[in-house]
Fold:
Amino acid sequence: MAARSFDSEQFLSWFEDAGGWYDKRLIGLSPFMGMGYGAVALDDIPVDSALFHVPDKLVLSSYTSELQSRLLPSEWDSLAHGWCQLILTMMWETIRGADSPWHGYLVNLPSDFETPMLWSEEERTELIGTDIEDRIGKEDAEADHRKYLGPVITAHPELFPAGSSHTTLSAFHLQGSRILSRSFTVPLSRFTRRHDAESDISDDDEEIQVAVMIPFADMLNAAFERDNVHLYADEESQNDHPEGFTMKSTKSIRKSTQIYNTYDSPPNSELLRKYGHVDVLPLPSDLLKLLDPSDVGDWPYGNAGDEVLIDGNCVVEAVAVALLDRADEIWRQSIPKRVDWWLEEGQDDIFALALSRELDTSLIAFVRLLSYDHEWLRAEKKGKLPSTEVDNFVLTVIDAVIRDRLARYDHDVEVDLALVKEAWPIVHPGDVIEAENFPVGATSIAANRLRQCYAAVVRLGEKRILKAIAHSISIGNGNGKKRKAEADDEQ
Ligand SMILES: C[S@@+](CC[C@H](N)C(=O)[O-])C[C@H]1O[C@@H](n2cnc3c(N)ncnc32)[C@H](O)[C@@H]1O
Structure:
């Protein structure tokens, strides 16, 4: 995370004055190398201890702010796209300065992000081939700013003064990045039932989830499987606290160590896209055993939760190539029907491959559905999912998919390894490791180089998975001698 000015005293006194509570004996806020600020245990914390409480009224959202009441219902409804209502709310509360109930919170939010949304075009080329190459969404965000926020901002100069730096496109990206990396998703009914106590809450309302900003709860960092607290939504007011959210320890936490929340342990590509950081932790030995030594190099780190997403269209193309002349017009015409059937069965046509000894069974079944007419007929007539049996033809297709995906990256593993070592140097046995947070956060290397290193970590994690699968296939497919023949036999 880029350097950030955060005044913990100011933030904490705002939090308390505004009705928040925290246990001063147990939890404090302090900087952590490569992570910005985070929460630290000031004493040994037993499991199930309440660490802080955030009342609902302190949650910054389009439901708790007064902005909606200052706009026409039609204007408010016109903003019901993605995060537009919340972004405009955050812009307005920022413009209000000290008049905003969230002033002490907003002035302490970060203004610099390492998320690819804010990278230059050149920096983004480092992500070519990765899962996030096409998922950054910068252009969509720009269109939302112009189309939805623009008219409301222009119509209300009393709320959004002309020329304010808080309503520009870069302010839109800033608030969007804050939401992306710090928001929590909660049921909408949490806010609507208080304003509208008379009306019934339908099951649909219960299920609608909305993004909101929960001060203090968003000060916690996360790392793969290190979480030791959880944020609980109060069912009713407790211990003199009004209804809200309580952060409690889920494990005992040693004094002076970091208090971690969970971001659900996503792969590094997703961590980088949403949070602007990557997880770099020692990889478990059972995963390292799956990798070729040249792909590990002398850098046995990474994110054990990494994955690579394979698009079903790439699988269709690989099957077409492997089927040779059997991929005729009739076969082509049957493909949309086969894929629709697959989706209607609740299956996904994006396959998440992880570092594992086993091939992904869902991918195997999909390849068989596309390749073998008897599987398709059984699916169509009896509603049965294809078998997950692996044969040489299936291996040939998966091997082609993997190689095709590997060919999309611009750099090879050696380049990635050299880059990642710059930001996360190798820890040798016996090295003095500074605090318990190394090598989780990157060391302080130049900001422009850091982005290259983040991209290299993502590429390396993905390539390691792909190469491990390619390697296991080369062992398992008997050199592919029978590939075409088997496909013909099965048809
Ligand atoms: C919810 S905020 C946590 C508080 C934040 N560190 C701060 O100073 O305000 C999430 C951000 O913290 C940083 N972060 C969290 N976990 C991290 C980790 N394991 N390594 C590096 N940065 C991390 C990232 O910048 C991420 O976008």
About this structure: The pocket of S-adenosylmethionine is lined by residues 1, 4, 34-38, 110, 181-182, 218-223, 275-277, 279, 440-441 (CB under 6 Å). DSSP finds 21 helices and 13 strands in the chain.
